[in-house]
Amino acid sequence: MEPTVLIRLDSPRTTFQPGETLSGEFRLANVTREQVRAVELSILWYTDGKGDQDLHVRQFERWAPETGDVIVPGRPFRFATVLPKSPLSYDGLIIRIRWCLRLRVFLKDGGEVQEEIPFRLGRTAPARVKLA
Amino acid sequence: MTPSTQVVSHPRDPTETASGPTAGMWEIAFSAALFVCGLLGSGLVVALLIVPEWRVTQQFLPTVCRVLDARLGTTVRDDQTLYRAEILIEYSVGGQTYRVWTYDIHTARGNGYVAERPPVEAVVRQYGPTGIRQTTCWYDPLHPEVAVLQRGYRWWVWLVFSIPLSLLLIGSWGLSAALWRRGKSAERLAVRGVPLEVLRLERRHRESEYPFVPEIRPAAIAPGERAAYRLPTGTASVRATTAWLAAALFWNAMLAGLVATAVSRGPLHWSFPLFVIPCGAVGIALPAIYVRQSRLIRAMGRTAVEVSAFPLVTGGRFRAYVIQTGRLRLHWFEVLLVCEEEAIFQHGTNLRRESRRVWQKTLLRHEKLEIMPHMPFECEVEFQIPPAAMHSFKSAHNEVRWRLVARVSAENYPVFERTFPLVVLPGERRRCPPQPGVRSSVAAARVADDLESDPGREHPDAGPSLTPSAAPPGDAAAASTAENDGIGPPHPEPSLEEGKL
Amino acid sequence: MTAPAPKHPKVENPFSARFVRPGAIPYIFPEGRSPESVFALFQDQNRQGAVVGPHGVGKSALLAALRQYLAEKNEPFLHMELHNGQRSLSPDDRRRMESLWEGTVLMDGYEQLHSWSRYQVRRLCKRRKLGLLVTAHSAVELPVIFTPEPSCDLAWRIVEYLLQKGEPLIAREDVEACFSRHGGNLREMLFELYDLYEIRLHPPVKPRVEARQGDAGT
Lengths: 132, 501, 218
What we know:
The complex is a heterotrimer.
Chain A: E1 4-9, E2 15-16, E3 21-29, E4 36-49, E5 55-63, E6 77-82, E7 90-91, E8 95-107, E9 112-121
Parallel strand pairs in A: 2-9
Antiparallel strand pairs in A: 1-3, 3-6, 4-5, 4-8, 7-8, 8-9
Chain B: H1 25-58, E1 61-77, E2 80-93, E3 96-102, H2 105-108, H3 118-126, E4 134-139, E5 147-148, H4 155-190, H5 196-207, E6 222-223, E7 229-230, H6 237-264, H7 272-300, E8 303-307, E9 312-313, E10 317-324, E11 328-347, E12 350-371, E13 377-384, E14 393-394, E15 398-410, E16 416-422, E17 424-425, H8 476-484
Parallel strand pairs in B: 9-17
Antiparallel strand pairs in B: 1-2, 1-4, 2-3, 4-5, 6-7, 7-8, 8-10, 10-13, 11-12, 11-15, 14-15, 15-16
Helix pairs in contact in B: 1-4, 6-7
Chain C: H1 17-20, H2 35-44, E1 48-52, H3 59-72, E2 77-81, H4 91-98, E3 104-108, H5 115-127, E4 131-136, E5 144-146, H6 152-163, H7 172-181, H8 186-201
Parallel strand pairs in C: 1-4, 1-5, 2-3, 3-4
Helix pairs in contact in C: 6-7, 7-8
């Protein structure tokens, strides 16, 4: 079976407000401790649209046996971060701003497993074209 | 959704250029050559032309002298006869009597020749047998045998000086830039992979309460007279006008110098007018453009906008005070609140910048009014930033910006506009009245509460940005509540599943 | 050539910049051409050549395809992308070129170097027996080995590939009209299709009709 990553947020919502804490846990499944080289968790925003992509990592954590971390598949890893006041998620005409939580598992055989959970920060209204 | 990543904090594409520990040798050599030539040339001009004239004016001492004789001195250079006035004077300094042929400091130093004969002959006649017999001369206290009858600065000396000076400036700029790069390379490479502009941006935003919300320097926001803050203007018409003036002065000065030099050398070549006439036309056009621009700016006057708070916040209500000076007969005058997006796409040599106006609201519009120099137009207006609007945002390649735009259509002038940048922060989520409305304190104001396309601009079907997308079924209650709150309904929320491949 | 199916789920707009930038779309070679044949032509020209064409026809995309081809063949290469206004090689670029003892230099934007820098590049490549393949908007000192000539058909195949990431909201007629409007500039065509896709994904809303407010005192 392919290695998998299971992510669970403490809150059932996918829209958060600035200042709220985004927290949860993740577990590795279908993988052994010996297979895992490192695990990286990022909470980030990125832009999309007609411009080059900009990206900013709000929080970055890395676990790796080489730095003394013990990665036990099946054991939950907790994470938490306080979300900033900006930038809020946005749907524009030529720019979008998206937030997500991204988890990467690097395997010793060179493979990589990635999982992502998008979420919204704030409640901005989308920009839409109007009929004249 | 897996966005392709170009994580800024990771090592960037190695093909991107970066300063290394050594600057290009050719760049250094070229800049150094310019610098040395400029230095030598400047030194020569200063030593041979400027300093002597300065010493005559500042350090030479006056004394009475007798004029004994006057003659026309001549020499031949490049097959051309040159002339100078040579006046024989006698004076006493410290008990010793000196007799010297002189006129000005250049003559005293062995030069002073000019191409035109008549003015020189006039000087000779002035000191001739029927002319001045006794006058004041100035002698060098360090070398009393050197004396002159004329003091002052020649204008062309400074023109000559500008040439090596410009080489010196260009060379020193190039050298310092190369040396600056040399010194900085280790520090820049230490933060490997992060372009310096992004690094500055990121460092500032890490420390900011509102990351990636652009800041306007506090010094740029002045206290207002009618409202709390006076906004800086985003337009640069004054700078552009000054540039025209500088260009006109520089061009005409160079042309005048060129013509004077050519004329002083004697008869002109037949092709000379063919060169001078078009240059002269440019020399006339440049000041004309400057005058027109200045007239336009004076007539257009000044637009000042003051706001009751800065920065603004989404959902907030604010007051703006608008002042327009000048001498104008207006067809219309309007102030708009606009929100725009700008996206930059860059690949190699291609840079593509696109802007899109996503929202605009006319805050006030006046028609058919006259502004006189001592009777500026003033108006106050209230406005609200829509609660669910996007706040100001700026990253390396993408921007959402808010502005107040004052647009004027006046008789005899093209439509012009002035922009005033705003910073809008994300507001707290709160309840807002459903009909914000706009009130104007001026009875004659007609406020358009629609979102019209801007005439003359390419807006792709401009429209309101703040119409929420349709709420999913089952979310109707949430949608209506959200609308009453002044906030668009939330985006559909999928049920959360544990993430899996 | 059939473009491979994308590995990612649906995206919001498949014409976003990150999906259309050079290298993001597998290069579609004309009939009878392939990375091998283009590279063979390059080898025949003493491993010196230029890909020439106006803006937006796919020069950089071709270079990206050749880069991938060389990587798959384990052939050493050095890719350099010159930036707008860059008139000379930086010391880093020069050092990287000097540290390459075999392989090919792929240079995007060669023509904006001034003559002396271009001469230095050619001389260095010749001295070290490196191949030099560049892109330019017009003829340069190197032999032209390929001139991308986009067609409506090619444009549609690119769009078809991109639409696999999203919804089938763009028709062939749209592509033909857009392609013709932009005179064969694929990049501008794709950016215009971004807007068209957005409009069709989120159809325009009708303006709300509200009672106009009276003057002061509402």
